[in-house]
Input
Amino acid sequence: MDYETVIGLEIHAELSTNTKIYCGCKNEFGGEPNTHVCPVCSGMPGTLPVLNKKVVDYAIKAGLAMNCDITPYGKQDRKNYFYPDLPKAYQISQFDLPVCQHGHIDIEVEGQKRTIGITRIHIEEDAGKLVHDDYGSGSMVDYNRCGVPLIEIVTEPDLRSSEEARVFLDTLKSILEYTEVSDCKMQEGSLRCDVNVSVRPVGQKEFGTRCEMKNVNSFRAAVRAMDYERKRQIEVLEDGGEVVQETRRWDDTRGMSVVLRSKEDAQDYRYFPEPDLVPIVISDEWIEEIRATIPEMPAQRKARYVSEYGLPEYDAFIITASKHMADFFDACVAAGATPKTVANWLMGDILKVMNDKELEEIPFAAADLAKLIALIEGGTISNSAAKKVLDEMFANPHDPEEIVKEKGLVQISDEGAIKALVDEVIAANPQSVADYKAGKGKAMGFLVGQCMKASQGKANPQLINKLLKEALEAL
Amino acid sequence: MAITKEQVLHVAKLARLNLTDEETERLRGDMENIIGFADKLNELDTEGVVPTAHAIPMQNAFREDVVIPSYDREAILQNAPDRDEEAFVVPKVVE
Output
């Protein structure tokens, strides 16, 4: 039987405010344990929370960017549970009146447009961090993260494959980056997601029983967790069994999930209105004020790159997916570089080096990349030498022109010098010359390579080609 | 409204309270009285009335996003039942 996967996501994004949600402590990753803590965020009795206005601003901004209705009258609620990372034994969150509701995000998967519903976006506080010591008998608690503002974005069960979910997450991440409500640094836990998966026979209207997966720390892990869960549930059904509603923990190292708790043990959070915080009333003026701050979004920027710079759709999509990359691209173009050439360098060698790192960590300026491109296009250095310059720009960032001088990478375009190289190579490789004469085209490539090598990669390849061909024909 | 012993024990469990039989029975009576008092409100016609989350006529109490120095770590940790140099220490928990 063919099965369809049904996926819904809950994404937590830490907001990039200066301070925590209910107190003036710094909202900053890292820092010595328990140094960004005060009586409010450590849950001392008798303290009172005061809501950071910026948190509401950012929630509205994210909501508008995801086409949500903004709730005119909202409130905050207590979600009660016991865990040492939560010193008050309740988390202040929002239950029935979240800041944003009924939104959607458009995504494109394999050329198909899909609209994914956003059920709600609410504000809440993050919990602290537990450090488990393998040797000691206790767990250490660090409350630096406790009270860091979060938005939780909940989707409708509209996603139908792990690939759709991956594209959705990438799109969501770029929306959050563009609106600058979150820095989206996955490795710092700024963006985390819980995954709900069910399967049903193709054509069936009713949803199957779903399982929730926690502890999914990267988009790659999310895709693996979804694929694993789909397979697991289908196996259960094919064996004549029934999928049981439960919460599972994803173990990315082992590539499998294990039961965390069943439906019967589902936590009873006993939500009730937070008596210490008054209602949040959002006027139309406030909404319009925030709307005016929303920048050009990825989809618009992509369209502009295609129409204005003639970039292929694919290039434009890759570059605009990250705001940092798109900003870097714009800066290179502004510095005079050819757009398509910049795109090639960004998507090729630079992305390869940056790999999983954040693009804002590119150690050199956009103007330097523009300069490097100008050196290639002006014929000063070859493409292969340019790669060496780029390596150096990553390792020890300074002016590419200086690097070219220091490393002696200036391209040799002097015909006399290259002719001498060509003659040497021909004399040293009689067999290849004979092969070429016998019509073996491959021998030509080898001889060009030898000339390049003899010049330590500095000779102008077009000139080598031309002079070598002439010399061989003359033999 | 009648409150059962099981309901009392359920609420006690959620609050992580261990009750003796005697305490359970006393609290059952208390809860019955409290719920009974709230039941009285059900006699009112509240059709079309928005649920009240807050009794105080106040809204949008905000602070600006400005950093205020945090407490000295020693001050934060000084009342902890168990601690090391930099953190609270709690019985080992792994969920």
